[in-house]
Protein 1
Amino acid sequence: MVTTLEIRNLHASVDGDDDLILRGVDLTVRQGEIHALMGPNASGKSTLANILMGNPAYEVHEGEVLLDGENVLELEPDERSRAGLFLAFQYPVAIPGVTLANFLRHAINARMKAEDPDSKGIPIPRFARLMREKMTELHIDHSFAGRYLNEGFSGGEKKRAEVLQMAVLEPEIAVLDETDSGLDIDALRIVADGVNALTGPNMGALVITHYQRMLNYIKPDFVHVLYGGRIVESGGPELAHELEDKGYEWIRERHEALAQA
Amino acid sequence: MAVVRRRSALPQAPSYSLADVQAICDAHNEPEWLRARRLEAWEVYENTPMPYQEEEWRRTDYRYLRWNEAGAIIKANGATAAAVPEKNLEPLTGDEQGGLLLIVDGQVIRTELADALIRQGLIFTDLRRALLDHEALVEQHLMTKAVKATDGKFAALHAALWDYGVFVYVPRNTIAELPLHVVCYNTAAGTAIGHVLVALEDNAQATMQVEYASAETSGQSTYIGATELIVGDGGNLRYVSLQDWNRETFEFSHQRGVVGRDAQLDWVNGVMGSRLTKAFIEVDTVGTGANARVSGFFFADRDQFFDLDTQQNHNAPLTYTDLLFKGAARDSARTLWQGMIKSLPQMQRIDGYQVCRNLLLSNDARMDSIPGLEIEADDVACSHAATFGTLEEEPIYYLMSRGITRPQAQLMIIEGFFEELLQRIPFERVRQRLMDEIEAKIIG
């Protein structure tokens, strides 16, 4: 069965704030599909990513997010992750004293324990092998595993660490929140190669980006434009090129009324 | 009319007397010089009021210490190594041990020293044995170079009444490769007055860990301790101290490292146990090029009170001291770190750093940090900092977004906070054990 993420009529704001940032988002992402979500600054792209993963700093006012029919809005972030959802953070958080390897081992063990409370977790040699395989696959230096999570990482290293986590956890649906931001062209290519290696029949992706350039490397099946808290345009890859040629101005003109509603 | 009975404003004093000092000297047939030192210290003790409102004591209320319960010096009652938790006796490293000295209720239960170290002329024994076998060395070092009777009321009391101790001596140019391990364990309530004296001659090197712990008892206890770490020119001492007294123990201790020319001291101090700890932790760099790293970790829970008073004394030019303390507090615990970097005039080109990082885990806990500098030289690089943090939602959310449960995420963040410090302990299995103890405190 193909896993499906359905976002229905989603309204959301920053926690404790009445001003809605998302004002009725509808979007469906299936395992195996790559969707690009584009939009000008402040259109609500990152809010959507945060709401999907359950960031407590944001608040849902209305609507549903279903993962295979189950309402994930009622789940804690860890439950969402174990249900097959993944978010590559725009700003990954540094966790001093916790190595990337230790962190990922705990993440895997948490999955195993959720399935079987008596699970002893992944045996260390097997985990070490898995890490080596994934790091090789993603052209990541093996010393990376022993470094403290995101601490002192360059922008590119942080994004690669996010992709490595995605590779190890093998989600059904991954949301990539501006994974291209702050990357030079070489770093962007490496990250995109990683994402391309992981997408396929087993993973669906929602690639959030401000710029079209990311989509030169990650080929989306569908492109959506978020504006004024709603998806105002949807199409194929040609929509991204149109945005690159024309900028976001025509979106603003066409949907101005919406933004002011 | 109801009579309101006020507690006395001043802390109660223990009921020791000159006769107790004389009794100790007589009981052990101590040499004259030691008797003279004890009596001199007793005089200092008698002439010093119970500390209370002085700057370094005014935040430390120990008036709930009941000396009538806690003041009697603990006597050996036949307890053996079997009374000591296995974790304390576990070898520091998997390979050959340098030495183990086990003291239970003030009595030496076991003294082991590797043949290799014996052949090198290293002395690792209890202080009373050392007085018999190496009297001149003890006379030369005991409370003459590092901790002095005049350092404070409890230092004077210690000097007058110390009951047992550890003596480590590493001769010139001797490198003790294997670690030395000391365990001081008490099974009964009362007072323990223990001394640790470590002397490294020029170019000597050693690694050592001392552990303090006690069984649960029904009454209060005190530990009136002194630790002296004397590192000769070119020497190198790695010293780890781990304190895990029971929750009825009040520790008053003076600890001082003295670091000679081009010598190094790497000192890690862990405070987990006791009801109240008041520790003076000081390092004196006394020779050009001396280098001291002083690290501390502490985790206070329930009603624990830790007051750690550190001082870095730059008494020679071109010296370097680096102090990092990291602590957490939960429940209604309270911690206090007071740090000071001092330099005499003309002590140019010194680097002194001090940082205390605090992690506050409950609204009822309180943590204070008071850094300070008293620098009389002008060509110096000194800095001090204190930071305070709580468990923030953002990193918890980040860990949870990978499937890790909230309690596990909190645990990982707190353990990560301490990781940097625990990495300074040179024994893998000790680090693991301390992580487990920290985890136990977090889970409560």
Protein 2
Amino acid sequence: MKKLLHFLLFVSILGTTVSSYAVERGDPLKGQPAVRKRVLYLPGRFEVTPSVGVSFLQDYRHSFLVGAKAEYHLNDYLSFGFAAHFSPFSMNTGLTDEIQATLPNQLEDDTWVNPTPSKNAMMDALNEIKLVMGPHITYTPAFGKMGLFSTIFFNFDVYFFGGLGIVMFEAGDLSPYTDTPAEYRQAVTAGTAGQKLHIIVEEENGGLRFGPQAGLGFHFYLNSWMAVNMEFRWMYVKRNAAGFDRNGDRIYELIEAEGMVRDWVVVNAKDESWENTMFFHFGLSMFFPQFAPRSN
Amino acid sequence: MKTWAIVLFALFATWTLPAVPAAHARGADDDIIMEEDDTSKPAEEKPADGDLPADTDPAATDPAATDPAATDPAATDAAAAVAGDDKDNKTKGDDEDARSYWSDIKVVPRKLILKQNRIELIPYMGITLNDNLIRHIALGGEFGYYMSDAMSIGVGGHMYMKQQTDRAYLTGLQQRVLPTLNAYLYTATLNVNYEAAYGKFAFHNKKILQWGIFLSGGLGVTGTEVIPRNAAHEPWTNMNITIQVGAGFRVFINQWLTLWGGVRNYMMQDKFENSNRTQPDAEAGEKNAAARFINNIVFQIGVSVFFPTSFEYTTFK
């Protein structure tokens, strides 16, 4: 009986002690950083990223871009910078080719009745992206690493940015294909009227346009100071990509020689509309200073 | 009397002893030096590109780890951090106590989800990306079976709802051209998906999420319907053999749920109204249809649910 009592007391003490020990231990990871001893690629570093890019989801012309981005990283999460890209050349979209294929080679004889533009008139009216730039603020909330085919392992981060977007469009030129009321009167008098579109271009569809920009991107780090940069950039700007009238406004003129009133379509800034303009960039980011410290 | 003395002593010990290890544990907690990130000074150890060696060779750390990408930098780095900080501990006894905590932390944690022999259901919605004149919203789903942890076979499909864009209207107004358009009706494909990349990321260096990138290929059919230029003509439909290629990602939420997204190109040879505008009726239009190769690129996003919703790991922790 005595031995049994001693045994029960021993078990009681042991059990109570062990259980309380386990309860009181706590989680040593609680509140600690998820990753320690990691390479700090961003804080206090200057980033330069030369890149090439291409627009997509464009209606008429895809623009190819060459340029660079400069950015200073205040800390792990925030940075600010400026990007500028020039478009040395562009190419038709599928829609442009389809439209062009159905248009006549030259303007119709009676453009009052059938004002269908010719192939060249349609192409010359288009505006093109020549320069894309703007300041931005970047937020980098996440970093990580991944394995590709369980073979290649690399670090990456993902960032989001927003700012002011500035797009410079090269204007189309419809002037060889159009006439004004005064020119038409002269042509009627001279007997040479015809094969002109009756469009008054008050404002060209080129120049600088401003709007918001936003996007997201990835850095895939090759070493402590170089990374492959992939970036999606969205801009929202006003433009008249086709270069023709959109809202149907026109002016009416009495043509005395014909004894009738004619109407001219007006192309101006009111024919512009807000459009999504999107780009994909692929570049090589270089960080300075080249040494990247590690966290504790 | 002696027995009662023992009983009283034992009761005293039962009440007081638990406080000793608890206080000891708190003291040990205090002794673990967990410095905040300091960006101002270089680390003392040799800076290696990427991460700690244990991360780059998980098999060396844990023979049970079959997927190197399943290594956890958090745990690895944390364990290494403690090892590095041991010199700051005051006594050897405290060192051992501190290590006793960290010994519970796995250097190579398991993947969050094992997919082999599980079924995946993916309800998703999508939007077509590459047609300037007509946009489609897609609603559908995919059913897949994982033959291995990386490869699955399945069947998927969606219905489309069409929306003509402003440009479709403006093309008629500005270029005096009536566009030739087909509306998509449905797509159904047999798919093979392969998870080509697996990784993880830390959100604000606090929460670690695992994610993967998959490649997809498949074969199926797409139904389309001609939108006649002449509104008096009846539309006619096509059923086109479709080849699907794509890529996407998953962010793992728990053992049975992921956020899922992807971009897939459904390629087909579709038939359109002939650009010759003199079709007298719909029959003649269908007979003189013009074939054209179409890339129908669809961005899809949804959730994926794995069944059974739980599973057992096959390797030791």
